[in-house]
Fold these 3 entries.
Entry 1:
Amino acid sequence: MRIITLNSARAVSRFNLALESLEEARGKSNGIRGKVAAAVADIDLSSYALSPVLTDDCGYNRLPLEPRAALERLVDPELAKELGSDKHADLLEFIAERNLDPMVDLQSRTDVVHAEIDAMMKSLHSDFLIERNALLVTASPCINCSRYIYEFMPDLQALFFTGAYRCEDGVDFLGRMMPDLKIHGVDVNGGITLLEDIEDYRTWCEVQ
């Protein structure tokens, strides 16, 4: 585990811009269990200088909205058992906050769009990205996203996340399958820590 110091004003400015853009994009998410944003960027690892990351470049997780959802499904006790009481309560709160009509507006489905996938797709249409060798996420990738990252971002050199996903499988997978990938945790004050193995990741998670 090693603290990374950004030694140039340009690197600090670009990194802060990226974090701000991620937070703005995260605000667009309608995820229930967690709101996540991600962005693909170019990075020079000799200075840790990022290419500019704007809010419109960021992907975010979201639930598809589809008409004709059944109200009785939402209040069915079996749904609470299936989702868990906390998540079921979050779902009902989500509906109430947005003044949705469950009969016509909302159906939770399994094909949720994940932020990392959304960001990778958006990066394909970028006019200025060249290397696409950095990925920034507000939560460490899940195992499914990590598999997509491994498959579709073979030139990835640096991964940054500002929070930990509830399972460590994704980070463990990337660490094993992409041994040259530099994995970083970013704390609430913007401090960057290079996590050199899964034990470093676990230690970082404990202090967040």
Note: The longest strand covers residues 37-41.
Entry 2:
Amino acid sequence: MSAPPEASEPPGNAKGTVSSAVRKDTKGPEGQVMPECTQLDGVQALPPGQTLPESTVLQAVDVRSAGDDVLRSMFAVATQIEREDVPEPPWVPELEWVAELRADAGIQDRADWLVRDGAGAPVAVGHFYASRSGENSHRAKLVVQVAPAARRRGTGTLLLRLVTGAAHDAGRTVVQTWTTAAGPGAAFATRWGITAEDELELNRLRVARLDRTLIDRWLERAKERAEQYELVWWDGRCPDALRSTYAEVRQVMNTAPQVSDHVDEVFTVDKLDELEASWAEAGLPWWTVCARQRQSGRLVGYTELAFSDEEPALAYQGDTAVDPLHRGQGIGRWVKAAMLERMLRERRAVEVVDTDNAGSGDAMIAINRHLDFRVILRTERRRADLADLATRLG
């Protein structure tokens, strides 16, 4: 799940300090925790009776306006957790992580916190974020990450209280988070009644292991099995003439394994506009290839691949989906093979391709296993009713 200002000793038994680069209205001397709570940028930053570990500093962060130094400090925590979970490089690069965080904030309700130790080093982050509209806007995503050296000091519980409070204030009713299977976060989440609903896999393809003759066979086979379809490509934004049918086919992701409170999304052109604008702001180049039925002109399947200009060795496999009415004809394999074949020709620096799969998504996992994607991390998707979690947290 910049150096802080010097602060005087807080009243009572609170041993840490509260700071904010975007402070609007505080109730006491700069840096002090007040007996009830301190307001940071209109968000309750410290619940009544909650203390911070000695000499630590809590900062509420507006990620859209915060300086790069603050967001780099948040990244410093996130990358520690990533490297703990995934020991082998490449890892998500700093500038890319910061750009994506800022871009996501443009389309989400969110609240974020950063914790530093007494020397000013970042040691923990907390994030609440949620869709502003849509069928699943009742759901809040919570992330609490604490660096290994700073654990078991109450910081994680403090951040969980803060992100839960932010989710409540935003009117959400269900919380969702992810933990590494059997990792320390799993025990922490279980302690607070955030239960696992399904398993997710982070799968990695090392391009050097890719059987290129398999790609050729899948492409050749598609000429026989999927002759009533054709491939349509674009880079970046979907062309205007295809936006309606592309938004429609993206709704097929509703058929992927989902959590119990999921409500099928109606994916509109407006949502596509919002999503693509966020991707463009993040600065990630991406390709899309779709299978189009020749007779109707409808898109019936697609796959996406994004690249990292900061870390050319890394690519990200996005969604792959096929309309249920058009399955069983090798379309999923066709679009994946076509995408990888192009990547091999035009992005020769790519060494690994990472993708997420639901553990129960048998069809897509089977395709990825054939391509030699291998599991490098297993995580659990967890949920809790927000009201119940808030009661347990006190």
Note: Residues 211-371 form a domain with the Aminopeptidase fold (CATH 3.40.630.30).
Entry 3:
Amino acid sequence: MGWFTAQDMRRLGAAWRGGVAGACLALASHAQAGDGSTGYRVDHRFIAREGITPSGGLVSGLAGQLYGVTEAGGAGPGEGCGTIYAVDPSSGREHTLHRFTGEDGEGCLALGTLWRGPDGSLFGATYNGGSGHAGTLFSLAPDGTFTTLHAFSGDADGQGPNGSLVRAADGRLYGTTAQGGAHGRGTVFALAPDGTFQVLHAFRHGDPLGEAPASGLTVGAGNVLFGTAADGAFGVGTVYRVDMSGTLGLVHAFKASEGTFLGSLTAASDGALVGVAVGGGAEGAGTLFHLQPDGQLVTLHDFSGGVDDGAAPRDAPIEVSVGVFYGTTLGNGDDVPGTVYRFDVASSSMATLHRFGRAPGDGRWPVGPLAVGADGRLHGATMRGGNLKLQGQGTGTVFRVGG
């Protein structure tokens, strides 16, 4: 059984795009697919003009709206360059806030989870497009004003931002690129409020910190930033740290038994990091791990890929209450395209709350971390599923878990 690599994850949606030109017939926005035992429901199914293939998690707004991005559809060349959207979870209605054109210096192929500022502005990245054709950073103000904050050149400043940005205590936005930089193996960067862009680290082949960053950054204890990268001492991935001065250090170099192709991280309430690996572990189907800032690692769960367990977790779970985490996987051995799970650290118990794709109109392949909405429920997005009549694998969904 073969699972996905980190690069596959970034490309998964793009590889399934195709044949949606002129597909504008909308099916019902609300789900017939539901799971009464966990409160699972599809709140919205995308159509082409709204965007297809959601490519990151959701962020909740002050008024309860959920915001996200798609990597295709909307406007622009070919099948479109993606959109920024809002969904009202109470009604399932979608409002397209911006359609990327890929023209006049604008980006194309939006990726990752948006970061919401205190004034409601949204910040994110596109993997392609821009004046340098190597990706962009952007903002969208509450009044709808769209601004390209930085266009990557593909040279020293990097190429192909990983998507999710985070603002640290110094007010700067931090992120990573998968490629480019002085040595061609990716970068860690910071963008100040005045627009000053700085490369903090350029990864190189054989770098002990790893190379080709696999995710954005997470703010941990003491305002230290943490990220994941490929390769490292054992060739399967690393976790590294970045402080506010831009100094990087290695936290942990993974072995295959601990997990391979690392996903994103979340800062836990105990000051440690909780993260996931897409592959590796005891069963080869990925792991959930707990990592202290000093590098001590404990594997919380080895995914089995069986009927009652998921496989290939890409995005870190969120901690809803102390020691209780909710997350998603991309597949399992029962040919189910993803699961939602709950893991309790105290009891070491794993529970599968939902298996995707088992009912008509359900989503497939969840993407991005789950988010707690203003309604107290968990909300997420899937790359595919939903409107299968519009495209073979569907155009993506927004879903909820919780009563």
Note: The two ends are 35 Å apart (CA to CA).
